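Predict both folds.
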Amino acid sequence: MDFVKVPEPQPSTEARLRAAAPHALVAVARSLLAERVGAQEVTLLLADYALAVLQPVTHLPHTGPPVSAQDGPAGSAFRTQNPVLEVLDDPAGHLAHLPITVRGDRLGVLSVRLPAGSVDPHTVLQLGEFATALGHEVATAGRDTDLYLQARRTRRLTLAAEMQWQLLPGRGCAREEYAIGAHLEPAYAIGGDTFDWSTGADHLVLTVTDGMGHGIDASLLAGLTVGALRNARRAGIGLADQACLADQAVYAQYGGKSYASTLLLRFDLATGVVHAVDAGSPQLFRQRGGTTERIELEAQLPLGMFEETLYTEQTFQVEPGDRLIAVSSGVHGTRSATGDLFGERVLRQILGATRSASPHETARAVVAGLIEHHGSKDLMSDAAVVCLDWHGRRG
């Protein structure tokens, strides 16, 4: 019997990226794009913690000169989440800027310089798919190298902020039923404010936590609270019982001297029914049509304030097209230099002006408005904003 030797298939782009050493992803990306589309230059830009600039990833000192995350061609690609083509004169060609987003979490932009006459819709589509594949590998490689975390920094994080950012699931998440965008400030010195989410086949659990205090103490408290909530959630118990177990964990550690205000939400993805536990100070707003309203929930005790507190759930309904915005006390309770409270009036103005913007841009705009109201980037309290657009399940 004769056997015909079948040639080994060439590894796919995704396979070659997966095989790259964690720190060598950019170099492998340059080689792949040079082969496939004739790329003359490839730059990976990652959004910094404050979402103010995009930082080029290099080997040493881990980043080059930044570009704006809001303006210019690269900033426009990041902000709008659409490819942007920049025409070059010397040398002639195009610079394609492709947004890098992983499951709704915006990481940055891939900029690719191409020779004149080599850009067409198919090439741009290929580059967009490549940018997404690279983004997934960057997210995975972050477990094994500090390179991409270092590249995101315009300055050193405080230790408390380092702990808080490592605690987060990301800054965004998207599925058919919803899209989430979130932001924290002061980004390089955040302490006790945090957020978390987890999605399953039929539900989404979202929490916003405002840990008491500042700096390391607040970060340790927030870490314990989020860890306790995750542990309870992963045990498969209901929302009120999750709050009860986290309350016991925090009280056992601090004896009521420190506590964490937390808003817990559980969305039924098929029906839009939301179960809620309001354990403290985070506030929740809903935009429906042209109306912005505060969702008034029963105010219950913060987690860890007293021993063995019992919590109860409430429910409300979201409809396709609704937008929910959760803000910590560092947002709704911040005052200007003259003592004016940021409050609902200013918050409603910002939410109204950003109704057509993405959840990511809305969360960023609320924080930007807060900083403008405060009169300084050095906020006195941590500020957390989580914005969720509800699409509902089709069919």
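Second protein follows, with its predicted structure tokens after the sequence.
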Amino acid sequence: MTVDAELPAGVPGIDVPGLAGWLAAELPGSGRITAVDLLAGGRSNLTYGITLDGGRRIVLRRPPLGHVQPTAHDMGREYRVLSALGKGSDVPVPTTLAFCDDEAVIGARFYLMDFVDGKVLRTPEDAPGMTPEQASALSDRLAEALAAVHLVDLEKTGLTDFGRPAGYMARQLRRWGKQWDGSQEAIRATGAERHLPEYDRLVARLAERLPAEDGGLTGLVHGDFRLDNALARLEPRPEITAVVDWEMSTLGDPLSDLGLTLVYWTQASDAQAERLPVGASITAAPGFHTRRRFAERYAEITGFDLDALDFYVAFACFKLAVILEGIHARYLQKATVGEGFEAIGEGVPALLERAHRILDDGSVW
């Protein structure tokens, strides 16, 4: 590949000549870049499709543009966990190709991985011919994928030092609190105002319910596990071809993942206020498991006790509210790429209210 060959036009977040030169040095023989496009999906780290000579497709991941929290969007960690899982686990993940630690190449650290055949399913329009039987099977496959993440052999994969599981939930409360504060500063800098008193009350309630520092469940945690952070295929049979978006993965309490999955999971009986501006609404279609049945399937596979699930789902509401507030801040800074960001901020107060309701009722159902 020659860097001075004719290259396609760039897209926001990618320096195409810089990427071409780096590819020539790091992956010689990979071929000339013929197209670069922003892939649908992901409202945090950005995902691009790179087309090479001969039609080969690879995928590039980089941090978002604009307002970025200092502890978030670590490309190196995401690359490490994907590489480890690809070599020593039953978790379906893309094959990693190369990692770039030099921000000067395209403007940020990034990594490359193989393109995986599969589709992001968010709305019924994404799978118009899906039958209830396929939806039910896909629900099971996703529960099995989540269980596979949490049952990963940390020794075999070399991930025993990937995090500090003791005191995980307490650190999460502190970490996301700092993220919230950073987003509030960014929002104020734009001249906008946010008044959300239920946030502070929720933090206090969650702090009262934190599990003991030691003991309890420990395993690999994805950090943002949901249907539309996976690639799915319905034919010849429903399957999850890859779990993606590992930017928040670490070692910790697996039930934090399950809690977040259930917050994202929409079902037909949900009131309008419970339908988030992110996540997959397709799970409300006929045949998909209810949240209860999804959790039951997960428990059947893992054997984990779900008696304290209300805390984990309420905590997930808090965490997702912080994530959405960060996205809202980037939207106000005009530093987002893609569509649908204008409604993100509206989901924050709804999530805070939902968390309080769950804690009041002591049940997620």
